[in-house]
């Protein structure tokens, strides 16, 4: 008689027990990013923008995808980081890029922490509107603080000294920027990955799926949400700061609804609550935007809109979710094909 | 004299302005098991929800090991020693069994080893996601998760609801083992009065938000007519 496989030998169970480990394909995005550097030296500006959006989307994924914090105002933290880095550099207070990013992250985290203390007492539509209001308030503050922020015109001509005193920042030929952003993204990604697979990250999933139950198992839900929101804000602040450094200017668009909506669309497109959804979503969105705007310059957003409707109707898990569904459909067949041992 | 594990004194509680429970008084001694029975909608689940802090307390006091829980948030109640197994099981579907257990685990007498002696099935299922489990396994996971928080009082809300008879049988055996060997105080809310009355020597019967009987289970178990007086059905 052939031995029946035990439940732990089931492919689904095996896949889940292995999900904390590094999977074979996980180095792939990084290899591709490095390959992009060598293969497309004329498009490194696009690549830099793409990597920044990935980082921004990862920051949103922590809050929205893992903790279930519904927000439409994440650009508030992106802008806070961008303005911090921009203003410090513009007024000659601090220009060193890496520590500048840390300052940007700290300011964004502080705003995230303080706003989170109030906002995260609410849920659903109220929370959504309050995050939007927070962002609008910051945007208006940046607009009114013309003497410091440059108001509507923003801060232009930000000068960033060479990285480590060796590698020149040049917005027209952004080799340094690309590798610098890639390095920062890698460090932030490793941090985010470690976080979501830690007990803290698991508790965030628990909170998203059943808040009351997490209360009942003794988890301080609001504290954890505020901590997650603060970390997420800090990562968004880094994304904003690095955007300011790479583009050598900051303006109100960093705090605008357009940016907040774009990152949300990227995450929904790629698949939220998956980390790698940020990579896939950013690539798909920016490539599609680039392609569609060439094909139909006056109404290219219609194409993106239709794609989003299709995703919302038929693929709630985004592009990554579609891939996962396909793999799951194939897996039982593979399991049945195994000869009895 | 040892203080009560749990005490409800003149408790009136409900949801917002609505009062569901009125003048609830009862105590549970350390290591004692009691069952709560009654018809649908008489306030059994609300009773447990009130102990956990999910409801609005209008009057009275809930005390755990002599300490009042007034104003204590839910997560601190859990940390103080209340383990709650809800009616809907409410396991986290996208976490694995292992992660479901770890998410609220606190150090104490209940360890993995002790847990898997009670629930050997779960050990086989550690890598499976919550939503890949059967109803019975989900219920066992829900109880196991509560035990790993190392409570002093375990609140079980209709754990056999919706389960196949063979699973109910296995689960009641587990509950009996818990009652006899764990040293926990257990409050079992159960629609199935036969299971409830066999589970504990003491039972509480509720009707219209009030306790109408608090005493030995045996007289009700042995006298279907008397049981029918309280809950309207006999078994």
Record keyword descriptors for this entry.
heterodimer, A: 341 residues, mainly alpha, ABC transporter involved in vitamin B12 uptake, BtuC, two-stranded antiparallel ribbon, 15 helices, 71% helix, B: 235 residues, alpha/beta, Rossmann fold, four-stranded antiparallel beta sheet, 36% helix, 27% strand, globular
Note down, in words, how this protein is organized.
- The complex is a heterodimer of chains A (341) and B (235).
- Chain A has 341 residues and is mainly α.
- Chain A has a single domain, classed as Orthogonal Bundle (ABC transporter involved in vitamin B12 uptake, BtuC), CATH 1.10.3470.
- Chain A has 15 helices and 2 strands.
- Chain A is globular and about 55 Å long.
- The N terminus and C terminus of chain A are likely disordered.
- Chain B has 235 residues and is an alpha/beta fold.
- In chain B, 36% of the residues lie in helices and 27% in strands.
- At the A-B interface, helix 1, helix 9 and helix 10 of A face helix 2 and helix 3 of B.
């Amino acid at each position: 008689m052939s031995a029946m496989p035990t439940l732990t030998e089931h492919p689904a169970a095996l896949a889940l027990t292995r999900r904390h480990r590094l999977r074979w394909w996980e180095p792939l995005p990084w290899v591709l990013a490095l390959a992009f550097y060598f293969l497309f030296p004329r498009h490194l500006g696009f690549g830099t923008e793409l990597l920044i959006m990935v980082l921004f989307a990862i920051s949103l994924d922590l809050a929205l995808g893992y903790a279930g914090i519904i927000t439409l105002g994440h650009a508030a933290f992106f802008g806070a980081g961008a303005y911090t880095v921009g203003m410090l550099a513009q007024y000659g207070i601090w220009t060193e890029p890496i520590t500048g990013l840390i300052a940007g992250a700290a300011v964004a985290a502080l705003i995230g922490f303080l706003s989170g203390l109030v906002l995260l007492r609410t849920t659903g539509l109220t929370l959504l509107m309050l995050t939007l209001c927070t962002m609008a308030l910051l945007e208006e503050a940046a607009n009114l603080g013309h003497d410091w922020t440059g108001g509507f015109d923003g801060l232009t001509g930000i000068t960033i000294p060479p990285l480590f005193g060796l590698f020149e920042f040049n917005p027209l030929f952004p080799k340094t920027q690309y590798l610098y952003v890639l390095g920062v993204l890698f460090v932030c990604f490793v941090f985010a990955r470690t976080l979501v697979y830690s007990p803290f990250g698991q508790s965030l999933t628990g909170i998203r799926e059943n808040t009351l139950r997490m209360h009942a198992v003794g988890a301080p839900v609001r504290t954890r949400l505020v901590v997650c929101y603060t970390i997420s804000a800090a990562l968004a602040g880094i994304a904003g700061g690095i955007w300011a450094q790479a583009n050598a200017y900051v303006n109100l668009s960093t705090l605008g609804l357009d940016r907040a909506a774009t990152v949300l669309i990227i995450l929904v497109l790629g698949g939220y609550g998956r980390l790698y959804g940020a990579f896939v979503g950013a690539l798909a969105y920016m490539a599609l935007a680039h392609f569609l705007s060439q094909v139909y310059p006056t109404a290219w957003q219609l194409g993106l809109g239709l794609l989003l409707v299709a995703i919302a109707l038929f693929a709630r898990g985004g592009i990554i979710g579609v891939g996962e569904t396909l793999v799951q459909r194939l897996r039982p067949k593979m399991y049945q094909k195994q000869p009895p041992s | 004299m040892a203080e009560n594990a749990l005490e409800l004194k003149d408790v009136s509680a409900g949801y917002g302005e609505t009062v569901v429970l009125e003048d609830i008084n009862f105590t549970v001694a350390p290591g004692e098991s009691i069952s709560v029975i009654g018809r649908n909608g008489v306030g059994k689940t609300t009773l447990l929800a009130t102990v956990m802090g999910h409801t609005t307390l209008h009057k009275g006091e809930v005390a755990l090991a002599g300490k009042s829980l007034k104003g204590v948030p839910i997560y601190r109640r859990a940390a103080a020693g209340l383990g709650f197994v809800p009616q809907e099981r409410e396991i986290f579907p996208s976490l694995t069994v292992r992660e479901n257990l770890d998410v609220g685990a606190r150090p104490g007498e209940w360890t993995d080893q002790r847990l898997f002696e009670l629930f050997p099935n779960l050990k086989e299922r550690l890598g499976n996601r919550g939503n890949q489990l059967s109803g019975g396994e989900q219920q066992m996971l829900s109880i196991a998760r509560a035990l790993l928080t190392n409570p002093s009082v375990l609140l079980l809300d209709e754990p056999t609801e919706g389960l196949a008879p063979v699973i109910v049988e296995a689960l009641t055996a587990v509950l009996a083992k818990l009652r006899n060997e764990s040293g926990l105080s257990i409050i079992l809310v159960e629609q199935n009065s036969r299971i409830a009355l066999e589970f504990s020597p003491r039972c509480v019967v509720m009707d219209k938000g009030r306790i109408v009987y608090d005493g030995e289970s045996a007289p009700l178990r042995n006298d279907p007519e008397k049981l029918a007086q309280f809950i309207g059905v006999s078994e």
